[in-house]
Amino acid sequence: MFVNVNGHPGSRPKALGELGELSRARIVPSEFRYNKGTEIYGEAEPADYIYQVVDGAARSYKLLSDGRRQIGAFHLVGDIFGLENGLVHRFTAEAIVDTTVRLMKRCSLEHVAESDVFVALDLLNMTTSNLQHAEDHMLLLGRKTSLERVAAFLLEMDRRLTAAGVIALPMCRRDIADYLGLTLETVSRALSYLHGKGILGFLGQTQRQIVLLDRVRLAELDL
Amino acid sequence: MFVNVNGHPGSRPKALGELGELSRARIVPSEFRYNKGTEIYGEAEPADYIYQVVDGAARSYKLLSDGRRQIGAFHLVGDIFGLENGLVHRFTAEAIVDTTVRLMKRCSLEHVAESDVFVALDLLNMTTSNLQHAEDHMLLLGRKTSLERVAAFLLEMDRRLTAAGVIALPMCRRDIADYLGLTLETVSRALSYLHGKGILGFLGQTQRQIVLLDRVRLAELDL
DNA sequence: CGGTGGGTTGAGGTATTTCAAGGCTCGTGG
DNA sequence: CCACGAGCCTTGAAATACCTCAACCCACCG
To answer: What torsion, rounded to 10 degrees, do the Cα atoms A202, A205, A208, A214 define?
Structure first.
């Protein structure tokens, strides 16, 4: 079934083993590269590092026992993720495309936080940002229609990764669906609808580059 | 509005409150009572205080422009809520029943946090707890069926407010529905179904007191 | 008593999912 | 160079989980 593409149960990459190579660099943040679809860390794994996307994109998700997946967030260039307060990660994180991350050992960070108020407040600010996103997303998942969800998604991506007026999505329709609590078909239909209404256009033939032609009408769909 | 708080900026705090993790903050808490259904604070209002439920229960929610409501959390006895990092609240909070809260001035708390690393870390811990709850709730809202949602709700309430084997719910079906992203009818049907299966029982005639008769089968529904 | 605020239940409607088919692109190998 | 399969996306048709609308019951309360 869903064994390969999203790296479901089958794949148990050796994130720790790979990171072992980096263990020499204790203090200085190091960079690491993950290939498309590979796991960066798994849910319930020890949270030894925090990550920042240098290039590429990642997804964080939870799974139900039967494979249903909910993506909690996409991590784009510049985003910091993997920040957990407890000892373990609460999400699985995977590279959506070939991705370079900068990583930092968590324990040293915590140690700094205990002695430096401003680091602690920084952590608090980052956690609060994550919380705010999650709160907004609960409203979307609990109460918005499919069209409203897709509109909100497009506006979020427009805000976060538009370059030169074009939204170059790194993720496939299934990822979008699992982020929005829909099926990929419903996402596709909503995008087609918006396309038909002249609200957005596609560039190239991959369907992953989107131009927002009428931001006003799109915003009207995002209640 | 409700301005009966005596803690003025000038007054020097002395006694420790029982605000648990925040006791180091050395802030004098005052109590206040809200009648059933009244607003404690509104979304986008200045966040001047943080709150702890002494008695009763509260709900935090967001509204869409057309009135659709998503309850993000219920606040039960002992819970701290209204903790925002920004200047304004991101939810509206209301008393579900007649409720007594202990409240603390936020600005003084922040001031302490800047100088006391342990207070800042306490704030971080509380924010992280909220984040974790929101993350779990996203999975519920995005991917679980109505029966699974109701089962998860019952188990959460069982964990958080059961006394003597009875779950005495403070909230009505509509609140539950708006928490679970369902309609009140669907919630009612799910409860009836579980009742019919012998998984739960009702006490009294208000339908608000629930006994879990078969926690095992209920847990099986919570994937 | 009559009204109001919950709660349940049924019948019908609908938004979204599910199932199925087909198209397009791209990489690989004959 | 073309054939081929895999991955991704779209679209249609049918199924269904949940919603909507409506009726009714019951407890509470002035």
So the answer is: 0
User: Residue A26 belongs to what domain range?
Assistant: 2-142
Q: Are residues B118 and B138 located together in one domain of the fold?
A: yes
Do the Cβ atoms of A131 and B131 come within 8 Å? Answer: yes
The 10s digit of each residue's pLDDT in A130-141 is 999 999 999 999
Where does A7-116 have alpha helices with state H?
15-20, 106-115
Chain B residues near residue A132 by CB distance under 8 angstroms: 90
Q: Can you list the alpha helix ranges (DSSP code H) found in A22-145?
A: 106-115, 117-143
Q: How many Å lie between the alpha carbon of B5 and the closest alpha carbon of chain A?
A: 27
Question: SS3 for A79?
Answer: coil
- The verdict on a CB contact (< 8 Å) between A128 and B86 is yes
* Chain A interface, Cβ < 8 Å to B: 62, 64-66, 68-70, 72, 84-86, 90-91, 113-117, 120-121, 123-125, 127-128, 130-132, 134-139, 141-144, 178, 180-181, 223
Residues A168 and A97 in one domain: no
Looking at the structure, do residues B110 and B178 belong to the same domain, yes or no? Answer: no
Decide if pLDDT at A8 tops 60: no
Task: Give the span between the Cα atoms of B26 and A154, in whole angstroms.
Answer: 46
Among A96, A115, A142, the domain-final residue is A142
Q: Position A114: which residue type?
A: E
Q: What is the pLDDT of residues A91-126, one digit of tens each?
A: 999 999 999 999 988 777 777 777 888 888 888 989
Count of domains for chain B: 2
